Amino acid sequence: MTTWFITGCSSGLGHAIAHCVLKAGFNAIVTARSADKVKAFEEAYPERALALALDLTEQASITQAVAKAEEHFGPIDVLVNNAGYGYRAAVEEGDEQDVADLFATHVFGPVALMKAVLPVMRERRSGTIVNFSSIGAQFWNPGSGYYSAAKMALEGITLTLKLEAEPLGIRVLVIEPGAFRTDFAGRSLTGAKTEIEDYAETVGPRRQANDRTHGTQPGDPERAARLIVNTLANPELPRRLLLGSDAVSIVSKELNRQLEEIAAWEAISASTDFPKEH
């Protein structure tokens, strides 16, 4: 039976994916910072769910969680790095510890989890790794510089892993969600401790106190969860999977803008080559 290891299962997309996976008849290791927040999965599916505490900022917690998962169910077939939260601050406002915590959760923790499961996946020549990025890795907004940077870093590592690991039978996928009706713009959104007035017009409208998108997002987490489970049943996966009509629209427009800019500056960009010998 396929065994999934899913991070960030206490709410949002992680909760929806865990529910969908268990409903489909698979095993699932459901994780959150506090195991109590995901105990309901164990109670509902006592034979196939294992609730574990997982702190992505602590290597010992990651090592222990993977060991317990493998002891309970055996090898992990699918790793889903979903856990995360929003952070909004002007670049100048970014608090050093806040930024370090953000990267620990969105980059270094997922990397540590991948490194923990890859040896067994390599040995078995089988496995799937799914890393949740964001359209913020392809499209940038004032106040989201650090969040976008973290997701861009995760994507760079993930897409490189895809080239390295797929010849070994390990599938790798980046997921880029748009706006989904979760707590991301609510309790999961953090921000600068000190706000600089000069950024009131650019960053101000997107600060947590001024954000009015919570509860109005177009994306349905349950539909997304079903789509992900069904997509992973296919033998072939894309490099990136956009989720949501807003994601498709926003990223398409940004990529077209980039192509137009490249074309406009092509002659200047190419002028740095050594002169061609005749």
Q: For the largest beta sheet, what order do the strands appear in spatially?
A: 3-2-1-4-6-7-9
**C-alpha end-to-end distance:** 65 Å
| Structural class computed from helices and strand pairing | alpha/beta
State the CATH architecture. 3-Layer(aba) Sandwich
Give the SSE order as H and E letters: EHEHEHEEHEHEEHEHH
Main sheet specs: 7 strands, parallel
Stretches where pLDDT is under 50 for at least 5 consecutive residues are none
Helix content: 40-55%
Radius of gyration (CA) equals 20 Å
Write down how many β-strands occur, each being a DSSP E stretch of 2 or more residues: 9
Strand content: 15-25%
Mean pLDDT, to the nearest integer, reads 93
For the record, what CATH class applies?
A: Alpha Beta
Number of helices: 8
Number of domains as seen in the coordinates = 1
CATH topology: Rossmann fold
Shape: globular
**CATH superfamily label:** NAD(P)-binding Rossmann-like Domain
Please specify the SSE layout and strand pairing.
Elements: E1 3-6, H1 12-23, E2 27-32, H2 39-44, E3 49-53, H3 59-73, E4 78-81, E5 86-88, H4 96-124, E6 127-132, H5 145-165, E7 170-177, E8 189-191, H6 221-231, E9 240-243, H7 245-264, H8 266-270
Parallel strand pairs: 1-2, 1-4, 2-3, 4-6, 5-8, 6-7, 7-9
Helix pairs in contact: 1-6, 3-4, 4-5
